[in-house]
Amino acid sequence: MHKVPEALAGARVIDPDQVCDAVAVLADSGKVAEVATVLDVLGEVNRLSLLLALQHAGDLCVSDLAVAVGMSDSAVSHALRLLRAHGMVTAHREGRLVRYRLTDGVARRVLEIVSAVAVAPGALHAHGAQDGEAV
Length: 135
Prior knowledge:
The protein is built from six helices and three strands, in the order αααβααββα. By secondary structure, the protein is mostly helical. The protein has a three-stranded antiparallel β-sheet.
């Protein structure tokens, strides 16, 4: 049985099997909208840079993120508010310091793909490597 929507039942369909497949993969419109939102948020270079920094360097505070991505503290704070509102980052307090962390979910999965293309290879100090050592 083909799943052509009722509203389009009279529409001219060339390949009903492919239309059925297309309708089936788009059935969860909520998930499609969620991914579209993630891609929209990731589509801005400063927000993408913040998320990549958090993904690869670990939890960072606003001032450290600002230095890392070349933004002002207030611009980073504003971007982090948006990223928190979309559930892409969380904040946790360490004494007087607030550190931000990337959450698990669609954004993290997309960032793994983006990282393969956009992130420079090399050893990262925060993950146990010393200068000159490979990770």
